């Protein structure tokens, strides 16, 4: 049976690494208690992590009964992964260690309207430069995680959309980048990657929804620490739920899509038809224009504030739908579009959710900003490489049945 | 760790029962292959099911290699469960055997605006009558599953809403009915129960969304055969997602909720303000009125058709949201409101989804009616009793880690 909704059977080793990342020095007994796994399973998992060099013993602590317990600690530099996030408008790259620490961070060249033949060599060159700038030997880099837009076929490493140019449709981005860099490449939905990244920064609970905003809007859901995937591994098409039944038909076939009334692409396009265009000197780049509009709104420009607030209210309305359907207690905002405006979106959405969520009398819903909104997805993509490595049949023990 | 989004670790015994229900005579080797579990795990699970009397051997078949394999078969009458579904407007009860066969089915007294002090004794009397009418000895009934509206606290067996009267708020319905009948009682969200019921009728795939419509509208999601629950075990509040941002504020705090423009309660209330009230002789019962309106629409009454079509279109719009967020390939319609109108809703929703779902170029989405829309939730509730029985620590082996 193929797991569908979420990668339900988290390998024990991944679970243990997550715990070691959150706490500092932990004993096997504490790990067994925290996970609900048997001590035998835990001992086995820890043995494998020690063999990989990912975990080492750092002395002993006395238990309540006085028996000494050996404490375990992560070896952060035992493993490094590259994480990239790109879409048409922005891209960033990171090199991340086992503990989620960022060794290098870079902006990537903008894709714009260019095809993969130009973009892939640039990404490969950026990876080379990042590895060169880090203190990490190339052979110690375990692979590249690439967070990008959907729809995509994760297993095949292929994009399933003709965006931004027809040449990207069914382009084998993972294989092409692997060939150009000599490193294994895994692709991931950007909103889902942001969820994994937020989780790996330790700030988020195990269950939360993600609202991801770059030029457009996407959604993600983390259940018990695992991404919810759905039938085609494409997370939540939050940007294409309707927030206005009488709105215009979207390219996706639906009407009044959130993307068309709330995204930076939509807001900057609306602004260009107003005096704001000249007043703020709005250029072609929607994220740069969105930043200028957001800053003007913060400085008291009424026209700019109206546009931003319309986006905020539409996004908040979609978040109510998201929360009413998934019944989560937490929504994390990530993506570079929240760099300037995160607080404004967070506060307004919190206010709307406090008033409008069906289950608010049973449990509250917190809106939070991811730790570093512009890099969360790239870090999550890097962590996907680690997860894949640990889930490969030769490493660690599965906590669930075999397949 | 508490499982959140779905009961991810399905006990092996439940998995085996599901497979035996779908196929007829199966060998242990085939079961191991179909589940991906090891032969040792499968042998262990089958031993337990044989010890319970749920499964027996029915001869041998030759494998491809010529080795004889003993075939296993369900013993349908080894176990019976009561399933009830009730809300303010309608209630039905069933006695179901291990194979999902319905031994008895009954309408339950309508709750209306009455409190639990009147309703619980009536439910208990109905259960007594149903058991008496069946060929099943009372001691062979394993318990009662009760599907009803939310919010509810499943673990506590308590309703968390003052609907239909304040006396129901935090009323311990499970404990009260258990005391009145002497049988264990489990409660379940009605839309989720319908999902479990649809699954147990074997018609549905392992992954699908449920749209449940009685007086109001609810939603459910089955992932890999398990209910998605969310933070508070209340499935999907589909009736309270907005389909009209400029619509009136709903009692739930949100605006333009689906329930207020598409449910039988809403449609019958709208109809009562038109000449239809007199023409069709609409009474106070919203589901009866909804049936009359639906039949008139089918017979060509334009006014009635307009009301039904508005409901259909709003529900279809909400289904696009549901599918775009959960990325399912199948939506099952269940609930008594679809008894008359199921085909109309299914066909129209299919048409809208075919045009508007984001992922339609990657995979199709099928809209289906549950086998017996009025009894699906009650059958699912009965199956919850069986799942609880098999998941109790003394029975069967978990296919996942211990807790």
Summarize the helices and strands and which ones pair or pack:
2 copies of one chain form a homodimer.
Chain A: H1 12-22, E1 26-27, H2 28-35, H3 39-51, E2 55-62, E3 68-74, E4 80-86, E5 91-97, E6 102-107, H4 116-133, E7 141-148, E8 152-153, E9 158-159, H5 173-181, E10 185-189, H6 190-200, E11 208-213, E12 217-223, E13 226-227, H7 259-262, H8 264-271, H9 276-280, H10 286-298, H11 302-326, E14 330-334, H12 338-356, E15 366-369, H13 376-391
Parallel strand pairs in A: 4-7, 7-10, 11-14, 14-15
Antiparallel strand pairs in A: 1-3, 2-3, 4-5, 5-6, 8-9, 11-12, 12-13
3D architecture notes:
Two copies of one chain form a homodimer. The first copy, chain A, is α/β, with parallel strands linked by helices and 403 residues long. Chain A is 40% helix and 19% strand. Chain A has 13 helices and 15 strands. In chain A, strands 6-5-4-7-10 form a five-stranded mixed β-sheet, with helices on both faces. Chain A has a five-stranded mixed β-sheet with strand order 13-12-11-14-15, with helices on both faces. Chain A has a three-stranded antiparallel β-sheet with strand order 1-3-2. In chain A, strand 4 (80-86) and strand 5 form a beta hairpin. The radius of gyration of chain A is 22 Å and the shape is globular. Mean pLDDT of chain A is 88; it is low at 1-9 and 396-403.
């Amino acid at each position: 049976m193929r797991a569908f909704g979420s990668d339900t059977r988290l390998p024990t080793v991944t679970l243990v690494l997550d715990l070691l990342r959150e706490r500092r020095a932990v004993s096997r007994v504490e790990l067994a208690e925290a996970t609900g796994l048997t001590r035998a399973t835990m001992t086995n998992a820890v043995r494998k992590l020690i063999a990989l060099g990912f975990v080492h013993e750092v002395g002993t602590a006395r238990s309540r009964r006085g028996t000494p317990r050996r404490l375990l600690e992560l070896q952060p530099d035992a493993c490094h992964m590259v994480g990239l996030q790109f879409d048409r408008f922005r891209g960033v790259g990171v090199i991340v260690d086992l503990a989620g620490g960022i060794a290098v961070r870079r902006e990537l060249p903008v894709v714009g309207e260019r095809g993969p033949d130009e973009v892939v060599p640039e990404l490969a060159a950026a990876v080379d430069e990042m590895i060169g700038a880090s203190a990490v030997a190339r052979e110690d880099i375990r692979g590249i995680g690439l967070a990008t837009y959907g729809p995509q076929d994760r297993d095949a490493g292929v994009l399933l959309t003709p965006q931004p140019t027809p040449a990207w449709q069914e382009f084998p981005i993972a294989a092409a980048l692997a060939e150009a860099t000599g490193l294994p490449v895994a692709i991931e939905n950007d909103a889902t990657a942001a969820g994994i990244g937020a989780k790996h920064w330790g700030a988020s609970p195990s269950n939360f929804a993600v609202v991801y905003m770059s030029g457009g809007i996407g959604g993600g859901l983390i259940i018990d620490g695992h991404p919810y995937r759905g039938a085609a591994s494409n997370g939540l098409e939050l940007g294409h739920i309707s927030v206005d039944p009488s709105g215009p038909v979207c390219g996706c076939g639906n009407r009044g899509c959130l993307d068309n009334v709330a995204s930076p692409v939509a807001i900057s396009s609306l602004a260009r038809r107003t005096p704001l265009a000249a007043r703020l000197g709005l250029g072609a780049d929607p994220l740069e224009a969105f930043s200028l509009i957001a800053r003007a709104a913060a400085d008291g420009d009424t026209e700019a504030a109206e546009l931003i607030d319309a986006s905020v209210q539409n996004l908040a309305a979609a978040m109510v739908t998201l929360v009413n359907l998934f019944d989560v207690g937490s929504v994390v905002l990530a993506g570079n579009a929240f760099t300037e405006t995160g607080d404004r979106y967070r506060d307004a959405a919190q206010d709307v959710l406090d008033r409008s969520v069906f289950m608010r009398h049973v449990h509250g819903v917190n809106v939070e900003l991811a730790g570093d909104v512009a890099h969360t997805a790239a870090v999550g993509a890097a962590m996907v490489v680690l997860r894949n490595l640990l889930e490969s049949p030769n490493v660690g023990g599965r906590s669930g049945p075999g397949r």
